[in-house]
């Protein structure tokens, strides 16, 4: 086993205490904490937070092309396909070809609409609990900035 060079050791020592400054680590931490809270709230509705968020986007845009859905939600193709397929298997969404056979249009089924409606009181509670630990208005503003700059 090789030892770290003295310069690498010095860099590690200089940065070790600065981890709390890292934007990536902080955003991931907040995502895990908030995601767990929302998952807990949605569990009684038989859904996960990522499913509800995607159903929300589908409801707002339907019928929506799978590619457009990925762009609007900043979701990578693999994750999007997997989540949509899980929702399809649960009969919460339909996926149909569009005018162009390469296009796949997604929309909520009546069961999906009912599941979404059942989840909303739990979303309200998750929002209330999240507001106890994060300023939601600030969070909305930051998300708006990120969407604008990432688009």
Give a written overview of the molecule:
It is a single chain. The chain has one domain (24-150): Arc Repressor Mutant, subunit A (Orthogonal Bundle), CATH 1.10.10.10. The protein is globular. It starts with 5 loop residues before the first helix and ends with a helix. The chain contains 7 helices and 3 strands, in the order αααβααββαα. A hairpin with a 6-residue loop joins strand 2 (93-97) and strand 3 (104-108). The protein has helices spanning 6-15, 23-43, 49-61, 66-73, 77-89, 110-131, 136-150; strands at residues 64-65, 93-97, 104-108. A 3-stranded antiparallel β-sheet has the order 1-3-2. With 151 residues, it is mainly alpha-helical. Helix 2 (23-43) crosses helix 6 (110-131) and helix 3 (49-61) packs across helix 6. The chain is 68% helix and 8% strand.
């Amino acid at each position: 086993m090789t030892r770290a060079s003295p310069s690498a050791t010095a860099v590690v020592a200089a940065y070790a205490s600065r981890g709390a400054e890292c934007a990536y680590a902080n955003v991931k931490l907040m995502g895990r904490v908030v995601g767990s809270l929302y998952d807990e709230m949605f569990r009684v509705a038989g859904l996960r937070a990522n499913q509800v968020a995607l159903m929300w986007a589908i409801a707002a845009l339907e019928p929506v092309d799978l590619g457009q859905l990925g762009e609007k939600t900043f979701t990578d193709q693999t994750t999007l396909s997997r989540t949509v397929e899980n929702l399809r298997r649960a009969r919460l969404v339909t996926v149909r070809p569009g005018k162009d056979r390469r296009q796949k249009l997604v929309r909520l089924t009546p069961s999906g609409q009912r599941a979404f409606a059942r989840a909303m009181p739990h979303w309200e509670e998750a929002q209330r609990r999240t507001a106890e630990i994060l300023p939601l208005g600030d969070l909305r503003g930051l998300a708006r900035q990120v969407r604008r700059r990432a688009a």
